Amino acid sequence: MSVSNVVRRTSYVKRQTLNAPKHDPTASGVLHLARFGYRPSVTGDFPGGGSWGWFFALVVTVGAHLLATSQAQSLSVGLFASPGYLTPTLEGSLEAGGLTLSARLKRDAVGFGLEDDLEFGPAGRFVFGARADLGFGLQPLGWGAEAYLRGSLAQVGLEARVGYASASRALLWAGERNFGGFAGNLGASYRLDPNHTLRASLAYAGDVPGAIFQASTLGLEGAWALREGGATYLAGLGFRMGAYALLGWRGELGEEDTLLDATLRLGWVSRLELGLFQEELRLRLMSTIPLGGAPFEAAASLEGQNLRGDVSYDNGNQRWMVWLRYTFIFD
Amino acid sequence: MNTPNAQRQTPKYVDSQRLKAIRALLGVLFVALSWVGAQSPAEITKQVQANLEKAPWEATVSGKAQLPDGSSQDLEFRLQVLPGKEQLARVEFRKPGSLEGNFVVISDKEVWNYLFLTNQLIIQPRARANIQGLGVNLTSLGDFDQISEQVSLKLLGEEKTPEGAAWKLAGVPKDKTQSYASMEIVVLKADPRPLSLVLKDSSGKTLAELNFKNFKRVNLTARQLKKYPADAEVVRK
Question: Tell me, which fold does domain B41-236 have in CATH?
Fold first, then answer.
């Protein structure tokens, strides 16, 4: 496809960030499923939380200015709580010079992102960007950075992400998983024909829900998706220190436009994920299956209109978290 | 009334006046019929537009389109159009197989582009949406007024088709920056609607050749046309 036929539309807002691509392989699921769980390794108070009120006031003022000038594409305000820790959260995005700039802030960390995309009309779209976070409540300062590319063109889909964090990611942003260092994944999907799709992914991560071995290691997963009679069936195999099986089903229930998406992994990674979706309501549930020493962990996320709530419990670390958010969308 | 004129209205005189009136009437009818028989392209496109705006309809559009790399691609999609106050058109791809499951919804203000493989719905203002990735501007297919505004059409004549007698129109785009140099449209006379559309480049090479089949009036609602998977990631741009 010639460049002249590629329209670059860089400004973009992910309206419903909750939705991960369907049948995301486990390995790359580390990144998407991070939205379900939160396992901070620090059990006490986060340091440096109280003296940043002025900074929040400044960000809120900037946010209000963006609202007034209708330049911001979205602004999310939230409240995050975990044992001994409470923080407001603020996330915003803004179009500027064809790029999408984003920022996120909690009481002891701030992050900035930059994103662009390539449009191929009905044939596909790729989005790529980078993000950096700074945990100024940590001693020494913690930081994290990542770059990503994802999208599809005709029958080929790609997702790549690589990142590094000097501290636990859970300290750098609310709802992130509890591991530092390198992380990355490379996933590809290919439509053999309208009804059959192959997916494969390779991931390096340190904290995967339902995994027996919780340390940074490589994971590999392959799956075959069959679309038949309005439903999609998924079958696959994965390997992360040991093998596990993957089964999934996605389809509409009854005539109420309710869509169910269920994925089960059993073996060295054991967890069940359920998604129940209606036009204005989205519910996601995740529970690990504590077999062979895998820690019990459960998470739920409910999204309706512009309101979203996340809760999770991690028995292994005796942790829980609650995160409520409201998103303002602007044209 | 005994006027000089009344005195002159003999039976012979009346017959001659009647004859003149009948001749005049026949003359007017002949001119009117001649005008109806040789429709102007503008009249035909008006009839087509009025017919397509009468009620919701759907059709299967199939044919070939040339991709930007020069290769030819089989194309088939279902086109559904809801005319009226809330005008909507939905294009559901069936061929090529790699796009099966993708669809585009076009309204006055927005273009919705659903991508099956990533389960994403990208919503953009219509003015800046890129929907010509397959060499065909999909927005034109359900809006004949737009075609007549953008193309200088002329009537080439009539031809017989399996569906009945049809007008054959041809034209060149008024805006020379368009991706095609000429257009041919065949319009069914009995039920004014397009039967086929051919786009060519300046060397006469066919860029797209689309046939409209299985045209039928159907009950469509905006909700139906805007339906997308409930778990899709929605991206507004």
Answer: outer membrane lipoprotein receptor (LolB), chain A (2.50.20)
Mutation target to probe the B interface, by most B beta carbons within 10 A, among A1, A4, A5 is A5
The token duo for A64 is 């209000």
Confidence of residue A1 (pLDDT cuts 50, 70, 90): very low
CA distances to A66, A140, B195 from A63, in Å: 5, 29, 54
A16 neighbors B233 (Cβ within 8 angstroms): yes
Q: How far is it, in rounded angstroms, from Cα A111 to Cα B182?
A: 52
Q: Does the pLDDT at position A31 exceed 60? A: no
Which of chain B's residues have a Cβ under 8 Å away from the Cβ of A73?
A: 236
Q: Strand pairing partners for A104?
A: A91, A111
Q: What is the CA radius of gyration of chain A?
A: 20
B74 three-class SS? strand
**Rounded alpha-carbon distances, angstroms, from residue A171 to A85, A109, A303:** 11, 8, 24
> Residue B126: which pLDDT band, with cuts at 50, 70 and 90?
confident
Please tell me which residue of chain B has the smallest CA distance to A158: B118
- Considering only alpha carbons, which residue of chain B is nearest residue A193? B97
Domains and CATH numbers, chain A: 9-329 (2.40.160)
Of the partner residues A6, A15, A124, the one whose CB lies closest to the CB of residue B235: A15
| B80/A56: higher pLDDT | B80
Mean pLDDT of A133-148: 92
- b/e sequence A297-310, b meaning 16+ C-beta within 10 Å: bbbbbbbeeeebeb
| Mutation choice for A interface testing from B92, B118, B131 by most A CBs within 10 A | B118
Q: Do A1 and B115 touch (CB under 8 A)?
A: no
- pLDDT (0 to 100) of residue A20: 35
Predicted local confidence at residue B205, as pLDDT: 87
Which residues from B are below 8 Å from A156, CB to CB? 117
Q: In chain B, what percentage of residues exceed pLDDT 70?
A: 76
Average pLDDT score over chain A: 81
pLDDT in tens, B128-154: 765 554 444 555 555 666 677 778 888
pLDDT at A321 over 60: yes
For residue A15, the chain B residues in CB contact (below 8 A) are 234-236
**Mean pLDDT over all residues of chain B?**
80
For residue B155, CA distances in Å to A311, B39, B183 come to 67, 8, 12
When CB atoms are compared, the residue of A5, A191, A193 closest to B117 is A191
Residue of B nearest to A199 (CA): B117
Please give the average per-residue pLDDT across A215-237, as a whole number. 95
Beta carbons within 8 Å of B85's beta carbon, 6+ residues apart: none
Q: Which of A127-131, A314-318, B66-70, B146-150 has the highest mean pLDDT?
A: A127-131
